[in-house]
Design goal:
Helix content is 93%, strand content 0%. The protein is mostly helical and 82 residues long. It has one domain: F1FO ATP Synthase. The two termini are 24 Å apart.
Length: 82
């Protein structure tokens, strides 16, 4: 019985570590994704300056969707800890 309690406590510690790593990966992935979107949007605006408004609005929508997914992933990781 004591061994089971020790194992359960060890697993709880590992779940917190896993949740922290998962949240970090989600945030880093979102940062890389938004960076790629911004870079590609700047390239597109440089090629077609007359389409800057459309490109910018599409970039903002895509960045917002990425941020939403990253926020959802961080919340799920925090719920794992609790």
């Amino acid at each position: 019985m004591e061994l089971l309690l020790v194992l359960l406590q060890a697993v709880a510690d590992y779940s917190a570590i896993g949740a922290g790593i998962g949240a970090a990966v989600a945030v880093v992935g979102a940062g890389i994704g938004i960076g790629n979107i911004g870079g590609k949007a700047m390239d597109a605006i440089a090629r077609q300056p007359e389409a800057a408004g459309d490109i910018r609005s599409n970039m903002i929508v895509a960045a917002a969707l990425i941020e939403g997914v990253a926020f959802f992933a961080v919340v799920v990781c925090l719920l794992i800890v609790l």
